[in-house]
Records
---
Amino acid sequence: MKAITLKQIAEELNISVTTVSKALKDYPDVSKKTKKQVKELAKKLNYIPNASAVNLRTQQTKTIGVIVPTTVHHFFATVIKGIIKAAKKKDYMVILMQSEEDVEQEIKSVDLLISKGVDGIMISLSNKTQNFDHLEKIKNHDIPLVLFDKISKITDCSKVVINDQKAAYEAVEYLIKKGYKRIAHFRGDLNPQVSIDRFLGYKKALLNNNIEFDPSLVYICNNNDDFNDGHASAKKLIDMHGKNVDALFAITDMVAIGALKYFNDNGIKIPKDIAIIGFSNWFMSSVITPTLTTIDQPGYKMGKTVFKLLYKEIKAKNVDIPYETIEMKTSLVIREST
Amino acid sequence: MKAITLKQIAEELNISVTTVSKALKDYPDVSKKTKKQVKELAKKLNYIPNASAVNLRTQQTKTIGVIVPTTVHHFFATVIKGIIKAAKKKDYMVILMQSEEDVEQEIKSVDLLISKGVDGIMISLSNKTQNFDHLEKIKNHDIPLVLFDKISKITDCSKVVINDQKAAYEAVEYLIKKGYKRIAHFRGDLNPQVSIDRFLGYKKALLNNNIEFDPSLVYICNNNDDFNDGHASAKKLIDMHGKNVDALFAITDMVAIGALKYFNDNGIKIPKDIAIIGFSNWFMSSVITPTLTTIDQPGYKMGKTVFKLLYKEIKAKNVDIPYETIEMKTSLVIREST
């Protein structure tokens, strides 16, 4: 028996081959009526799709993809651990790709995951990502997508985040309540949302507490090497402001620890001369001397939640379910550095 | 024109379909003469292999796979960074899988990489891997394989390692030369070669320096949580030996730092009461108080070397090239903890 082709179905219904293909793959831009007609005829004619063209949502691969900027950051390593743990329970394998903060690499990773065939994709964006066509591409392939931590606000999909602005606000307000007035901020790169949000939280806490915002107390850490960024910025901070700074809110624990190392090595007492708050509650923050006050960012739990959302979409298959944004709770962990 | 099948080639040459298939894929168990006959006839008849059956070494995917136990260990994260850096230069994408120290997961990861199609595979084995059939499977699929760090000695393939026994020997001998006599060892699990080798190096250094080996000074850390393993073992060590122990050689920096935290929190002075040496030179070892003496294990450089070996095999395609074992240099980094 000669195999039935898409062309035959198209001719029979007097529609284009593309429409037939899209209808079989449940693309949203084909009407329900057409989809029904195409599917019924395909069934009647015993149409067998070409293996390589099989839609991913109908033929599950039991494989999902994750793209993160790096695994050298302990936070991402713990998120991945959470994703793998949750995926394993549902018998899913996890393919991991690293963008290394390179947009080109992130786009290529998306292409690769699509071409290799995965049931869903989870991404934490690189710091440089400003165009989101590759995310739309995932959606156009009807592959469930969940963004986490470093997300794109304008992309319509499920997301797992923390409230960076609120967390930063609380950290800085805590410093102010403790009596610190000249509070520096070591921020991340200009672009990523988490960096913007933490900076905004810092600024808002100052303004709401009648402390003048001094831009010369803000340093940008964007060399993809948090420890050394923190260390170098601490030197610049002290060179410029000397004793006219009494606290520091750093965008990550690693940046904070880089600064802490500089202060420790240069006889600047923590918290007497300068207090420090980090961000993420990396376990090393409870081991270093002095131990670091920080914001707990639940990486492992976030990973499990990311998978949960993705799995829900995979299971829903071709039924449209509403996208969700889940905000993970953070908390301020007070230690010796403040 | 009707497509030529393997069967037709087999009939023409009076050999089995399997032999034809293997010959086209350059399997080592088919004679050169047969390979030549098959390939010539296939070319003459214009045989087009089925896409899904195309041999990976002839049709390159420009994708390679890495399987590591975890990325929470900074060492593996840096090895991966090195692999990705080197791969990118040659325009290769890297797919990462984590076994999470689970043999089943490691085997499934191998199967997945084979089925998704990669040009080569790099593995650092889980601590529990004792059967190596999945490694043979990779070789049977003619996919280049390079093992690194946690390897199988009996698997015939290229490897990148460090001399764990020698490195451990040097660390312990250094302690002995400094006058320490009651040297404890926090070792890894019983199975993995690195754990065995570091233990043997420890033991040999004692014996060669006329210090009696005391098994009660050796503790096993095998809960996949180095920091807490080190912390708990330190407690047991002090509970059992009190002041009758003056130094500790720990299998990883993380185990060492767990122990250091216990000593710091319990008024046990480092190095006055007890000296500590770690293993890996994780950058945190130079940040904690006191800074940690350790063995530098060049993860990033190892990653680059692993890719170099794999790339050589990929490029050699169907020509057999001799397997290589590259030993990366380690060195003792002396800091405040000894």
---
Amino acid sequence: MRKLLFVYVALIGIFMIYVYQFHFKEVTPNPWDTQGLQGDINEIYIMVTFQSGMDYWKSSLKGFEDAAQSLNVSVEYRGATQYDIQEQITVLEQAIAKNPAGIAVSAIDPFDLTETIDKAVDAGIPVVLFDSGAAESKAHSFLGTNNYNAGVTAAHEMSKLLNEEGEVAVITLPNQLNHQERTKGFQDTLEEEYPNMQVVAIEDGQGDSLFSRNVAHQLMKEYPQISGIFATEANGGVGVGDAIRLEKRVGDIQIISFDTDKGTLDLVDEGIISATLAQGTWNMGYWSLVYLFHLQHDLTEPQILQTRDTAPLPLYVDTGITIVTDENVDYYYAD
Amino acid sequence: MRKLLFVYVALIGIFMIYVYQFHFKEVTPNPWDTQGLQGDINEIYIMVTFQSGMDYWKSSLKGFEDAAQSLNVSVEYRGATQYDIQEQITVLEQAIAKNPAGIAVSAIDPFDLTETIDKAVDAGIPVVLFDSGAAESKAHSFLGTNNYNAGVTAAHEMSKLLNEEGEVAVITLPNQLNHQERTKGFQDTLEEEYPNMQVVAIEDGQGDSLFSRNVAHQLMKEYPQISGIFATEANGGVGVGDAIRLEKRVGDIQIISFDTDKGTLDLVDEGIISATLAQGTWNMGYWSLVYLFHLQHDLTEPQILQTRDTAPLPLYVDTGITIVTDENVDYYYAD
């Protein structure tokens, strides 16, 4: 009888532990149902670009993926392979057809994608724009570089390199809005804050390194006193670097360039380009996904969502600029 | 013996369930350890303002609290009770002394808080600025209204109200930067996009409703053709509203005002103010907390953090503007 009693006691004890456990689990619901920002692995967020094989997108996509991992959701990457508006429209249409949890688009053109973007928003799909916007579209937010401010940063950096005096030039794409803004920020800042510095020329480099190299040769001939050149895009910077190396004026003329492709980084590493401006591409991707997640889960100010002319998310995010020199260039090869 | 056997079988069965459960729990780690964005309830994030009793802060604090709830962390609200720089410095010093997980500051002055903000950052405390910035400080980000763009929005809204023609005036605070920017955005947009609209006067309303009322009376006398007034701050808008009611020109002169205090909302509700611009205050608070959380948990692009001139977060977030009219005014009384 004693043994049987012991068994009963043990049995009841274990049963009580079991019940206690069960009860405990019942009163404490799964924390991720009520706390923490977490989605479902079946939620698919799509990033859509153009020239989709370009290195430039890698860091944005990494940010997009990192945010997806943080939030336990899934991502897909799609893009027009060429620099082709019609192709990007088709890719975006295909993304919409999958009815994803959200789409982050970098628009090849500020106008021609608007209708397709609006179609996605009208279908109830959250859409944000990153890097290249489409201001007239219904997309909920834009995340990218404030190009005017990037030009301001370039001007301050140039003034530091030249001890606030000397003649400088700009090699740019004069017909593209983002490059006009970079040039204007550069020029305004030098005019307003550095009276001993002059912008003596603003030239078209056609986004081509060979063409830009010839423009740089010409500049050095026309303005032998020139001591700094700001290239508003990477190919121009590489061309200017080549010209300065060929004319043996390295160190004598300071170059500030844009972006962090391998060609540019190599010239920074060699000391031919003094500094290049890295865009906040990881942040563009990361916060695009976080914004889409918030739209998808209605984690926005509730009253605003019920009204017209809504602004559920911040409208515009300036992802900023980091200055890359030979001191920190190594970190950028990793991208 | 049969009974005893039954008891043994039951006992072993329950034990196996217990072991299975235990095992199951072991191989599935707590999801919030590895997935989802979630902090600890003992992490304290502090919001610091000035004139801390003002209704204006309620919505930002609500956003800050909503984000804390999403992320399972805690918040505290502190502020100088008066419009007093020294008092806000003291309050910020006290916040730093608590070594919190992060501090969101709305700076009473763009310069005088810089030293204290930098002290917090140097002590390793994440700091972001919201609503009113301190551009020279080491704070990691600024989240607020782009005032120039708010002026642009006001101009488009005014043109809609007036069918793109007529004389308009601005009542503003001509010595404060944010109000200069609102005025400039308004003026530039009308000049560039609406050739049949003219800004005939820009007057100082001194941020006072009685003074602004008298300015509005004067304006109506000097410019009897005037058909619209943009007040860049709330007291001015209330004063203009009073003047127009007194002179029985309601409907004849359109008023666009700023912010959503009760006095302004009442005049929108009565149809005396046609529209007022609501700032994205909830978003300022919400995203301030999310940014601080990301800094606290090192959820930023890793390589950038190791370099100098770092930009771990987007530098500037324009939280946007929502137009409030009699159609959606009810949603704003809730704040």
